[in-house]
Design a protein that fits this description.
mainly alpha; 10 helices; 32% helix; three-stranded antiparallel sheet; globular
Length: 268
């Protein structure tokens, strides 16, 4: 079980580290008296904040010294993490990006309302394998403007950075959000925030995941196949952002459990 292994905590508050060591990616010096506008504020374009009363308190977290190996694939093509066997995404971070996600904006430069730090795309991306993005156009990864044509299913999907920060979903160690956490977790980093982030993903894509099961139900009731892209492309895109694509096995299991009409079989 994940909680049984002894883990040593490492202080990893990005704001404190940046101030102490002048980490590249902070666009203003720590002595600057001018407060830079956050990306969330800039992208609102004059509209009211997602939470006018103020952002919810962001969770604080720490990176652990322990590192784990990258996951393996089981016979169902699910990713299996040794220390969190219940967490079963089936898309790697590289696959999520290559399929077309986040309107191409995920790793754009941002000024975080959580850490107060400005991050440059190049500095953020250099910790990840170059193979993840070397064949992708910049508009698929670091665009400042959301382009739904970049997305696999050609639809706009997902909340704004303002919504994520305002809702208190983004921790101080992963200021870009869940997918940044996933990239790091996939590569072996472990933190005190892992349980929360895994629970969030499973609530969307797990066996009881609301988006996953909603999509399967729509396909069954629509008398079509599990992979009919005409059915709920927005949900499909959202699932992809969380590292998951519906499979025949998962769809059949849920249909049987709920007594839904049988899915039409995929013809090759």
């Amino acid at each position: 079980m994940p909680g049984k292994r002894k883990r040593t905590k490492v202080t990893y508050n990005e704001g404190k580290m940046a101030n102490a060591f002048n980490i590249a990616g902070k666009s203003e010096s720590s002595t600057s008296s001018k407060k830079k506008m956050t990306t969330a504020a800039r992208e609102r374009k004059g509209q009211a904040p997602y939470r006018p009363e103020g952002n919810k308190t962001a969770p604080t977290a720490e990176v652990l010294e322990d590192r784990m190996p990258e996951p393996t694939r089981n016979k169902h093509n699910e990713l299996v993490f040794e220390d969190y066997p219940e967490f079963r995404p089936n898309l790697t971070p590289q696959e999520v990006l290559a399929r077309g996600s986040f309107g191409g904006t995920y790793f754009r430069p941002i000024t975080s309302a959580v850490t107060g730090i400005s991050y440059k795309s190049k500095e953020v991306l250099k910790e990840f394998p170059r193979t993840w993005i070397k064949t992708l156009a910049k508009r698929m990864v670091v665009s400042r403007d959301y382009d739904k044509t970049v997305n696999k299913y050609g639809v706009k999907c997902g909340g704004s950075l303002d919504m994520w920060e305002g809702s208190g979903w983004i921790s101080d160690i992963d200021p870009y959000g869940w997918f940044q956490w996933y990239c790091r977790f996939y590569l072996g980093r472990r933190s005190t925030d892992d349980g929360r982030q895994i629970k969030r993903q499973m609530g969307v894509c797990g066996v009881k995941g609301r988006f996953r099961n909603q999509l399967i139900g729509k396909c069954a009731r629509g008398g079509t196949t599990f992979d009919d892209e005409r059915i709920s492309p927005v949900i499909r895109q959202a699932l992809q952002h969380w590292g998951y694509v519906v499979t025949q096995k998962d769809a059949d299991k849920y249909v049987k459990l709920k007594g839904l009409p049988k899915l039409k079989r995929v013809t090759k």
